[in-house]
Specification:
Blueprint (H helix, E strand, L loop, with lengths): L1 H30 L9 H20 L9 H16 L7 H19 L5 H8 L11 E4 L4 H5 L3 H6 L14 H11 L11 E6 L2 H8 L14 E8 L11 H19 L3 E6 L4 H10 L6 E10 L5 E4 L12
Antiparallel strand pairs: 1-6, 2-3, 3-5, 4-5
Helix pairs in contact: 2-3, 2-4, 8-10
Bound molecules: flavin mononucleotide.
Protein name: Nitroreductase domain-containing protein
Organism: Blautia obeum
InterPro entries: Nitroreductase, Nitroreductase-like, Nitroreductase/BluB
């Protein structure tokens, strides 16, 4: 009888797990945007922000390539056209920011003697007024002492994703100190079910980056690459299907802040890979079965003058119930 009870409980847990993952999959399938097709305001906000961000990235490259990003610009303008056709608000912050990015794209290309008349024509036909929140920021990096004396608010606002680095290697001791600091990330029952793979071998680094979509034009400047992983062995089978990604995500933010604290320039890179890409990365870095990918971080040292995407933040969204 006892054995039967145990088996039943095991089957129940397995069923719950299946239901939970199936339910999430259905919800994701239903709600996530698909390509440039948008069926609600939030999807438009995401798709437009995503495309204008790629243009901001191009504007921030030190070796600016005039006329870059034609396809992305085309997707951006098409989505903005559809947004207006669907009757959404031209005064929405992200829409105005997107207009601002496109204007800056036109201006920057003109500085390089390249005209983009089709884009100019299309943006003229869009309603709305550009704000001044799109484009890039330029700054001189603070030194380590200055960084470490900032208050929390200034410290957080002073961190930026860097996509250009000096050729000086990252001091391994500093990196170790940053990883030690990031260990203070809170986690469910303090289990700390994460770890970092530090890719120091340049050949492996280059191979891994071939399987990541967002590092084109700057990945070759990384001194090292981190892959943050969560370890499924640390999580409870009956309820914690998503907990590895929650704890892992919190760890990822802590690592970014800790790198910043130790004056290591960094850019987070998505580890949402295709099946094939993930297979390659798993093989290249000898990940074990229990490890799931959370995020990559490209690191290096700051150049003398930094420029990066402005990546303006919208006002916080919250509701009180
Ligand atoms: C999970 C995650 C994935 C990201 N992936 C990429 C990427 O693949 N390529 C890239 O250049 N930036 C990537 N970023 C950096 C974002 O573009 C950046 O964090 C955002 O624009 C905010 O800018 P900030 O980091 O300078 O504040 C990623 C950030 C996160 C958190």
């Amino acid at each position: 009888m006892k054995i039967l009870g145990k088996i039943k409980r095991k089957l129940d847990v397995k069923k719950q797990l299946n239901n939970k993952s199936k339910e999430y999959e259905n919800r994701f399938d239903e709600c996530a945007f698909k390509g440039n097709k948008c069926s609600n305001f939030e999807q438009y906000e995401a798709v437009i922000t995503r495309w204008y961000h790629t243009i901001e990235k191009g504007l921030a490259y030190v070796n600016f390539r005039a006329g870059f990003g034609k396809n992305n610009m085309d997707s951006l303008l098409e989505t903005m056209d559809n947004y207006i056709k669907d009757g959404y608000d031209e005064n929405a912050f992200f829409f105005q920011t997107s207009l601002s990015v496109i204007q800056k794209y036109i201006r920057k290309n003109a500085e390089f003697g390249v005209k983009v008349p089709t884009i100019e024509d299309r943006i003229k036909r869009l309603p709305g007024v550009a704000n001044n929140y799109g484009g890039i920021i330029k700054f001189e990096p603070l030194d380590e002492k200055e960084l470490q004396s900032l208050n929390y608010k200034d410290f957080i606002c002073n961190r930026h994703s860097m996509r250009h680095f000096s050729s000086e290697p990252v001091d391994m001791e500093k990196l170790k100190a940053a990883l030690k600091l990031a260990q203070y990330t809170p986690s469910a029952c303090n289990r700390q079910g994460w770890s970092a793979v530090v890719v120091n071998d340049k050949k492996i680094l280059a191979e891994v980056l071939k399987n990541q979509n967002g590092n084109e034009g700057f990945g070759q400047e990384f001194d090292k690459l981190l892959l943050l992983v969560a370890d499924l062995s640390f999580f409870n089978h009956d309820r914690e299907l998503f907990q590895p990604y929650i704890d892992g995500g919190m760890y990822a933010q802590s690592v970014l802040n800790a790198l910043h604290f130790y004056h290591i320039a960094a850019v987070p890179l998505s580890a949402s890979l295709t099946e094939q890409q993930e297979k390659h990365v798993r093989r290249l870095l000898s990940l074990n079965e229990a490890e799931v990918l959370i995020m990559f971080i490209g690191i290096g040292n700051y150049p003398d003058i930094c420029q990066t995407t402005r990546s303006e933040r919208r006002t916080p969204k919250y509701r009180i119930v």
